[in-house]
Design a protein that fits this description.
14% strand, 44% helix, 252 residues, single chain, seven-stranded parallel sheet
Length: 252
């Protein structure tokens, strides 16, 4: 059986695709007929993402591992022969105010939120250049404001936005667009992955609601919609933009 996608089919790679925004993004692209490589550390959540979606292929990988970005790029090329969209969605939060930070706290966030997207974009660049593709970096709207106790996380995402603008200029002559979305308070399990207690997660939600003019928590599908729209053919003149998807939080 030939698993190679037809040359006319869009191929999308999504990191952090096991839950939340990544899963919703994989589903959104698959619903549009794209072939999706769903990348994540844990195999079981990836299987759940792919369940019932024959266009989604799980690819377990630790994007922070040595040579993993190159392995991911090779896997995409071997299976589909092309890549049209790279979505750098994977991210981790490790809370800590200055004076309490450990080296592991800082380096883990830098490795996942910043270094891995850089190396994965670099590894897949030849494929994206060949297809005239796009890179989507998933940032955070809090990166444009103060976030006491979570400054390292916000700093990694702010750096990702600078990369977005810089790469947009660097890669425009090569036919590759680079954009970012900056989600606000979204209903994802990131708080659970962070190890917060139910009481702590509730306190975070109350803070988020108090700083969101629309007065509600967003859905992963709403962020996924913005990602699919920014990578659609009709958005072919859009690059270097960071789009807030935050219920007005960044302008409040």
């Amino acid at each position: 059986m030939n698993n190679t996608a037809p040359r006319s089919s869009k191929v999308v790679a999504v990191t952090g695709a096991g839950t939340g925004i990544g899963r919703a993004t994989a589903h959104a692209f698959a619903a549009q007929g794209a072939h999706v490589i769903a990348i994540g550390r844990r195999g079981e959540p990836l299987k759940e993402t792919a369940a019932g979606h024959h266009r989604i292929t799980p690819l377990p990988a630790d994007i922070t591992g040595e040579n993993e970005p190159d392995r991911i790029a090779r896997a995409v090329e071997e299976r589909h022969g092309r890549l049209d969209v790279l979505v750098n969605n994977a991210g981790i939060v490790r809370s800590g105010a200055l004076g309490t930070l450990t080296q592991e706290n800082v380096t883990a966030q830098l490795a996942t939120n910043l270094v891995a997207p850089i190396l994965l974009a670099q590894a897949t660049l030849p494929l994206l250049e060949a297809s005239g593709g796009a890179i989507v970096n998933v940032s955070t709207s809090v990166g444009q404001r103060a976030w006491p106790g979570n400054a390292v996380y916000a700093a990694t995402k702010t750096a990702l936005e600078l990369l977005t603008r810089s790469w947009a200029v660097e890669l425009a002559p090569r036919g590759v667009r680079v954009v970012a979305v900056a989600p606000g308070a979204i209903d994802t399990p990131i708080g659970e992955h962070q190890g917060l207690t139910p009481e702590q997660r509730s306190a975070v939600r109350q803070w988020q609601l108090a700083h969101t003019p629309m007065g509600r928590i967003g859905r992963p599908e709403e962020v996924a919609w913005s990602i699919t729209q920014l990578t659609a053919p009709a958005a072919s003149f859009v690059t270097g933009v960071v789009l807030p998807v935050d219920g007005g939080a960044v302008v409040a």
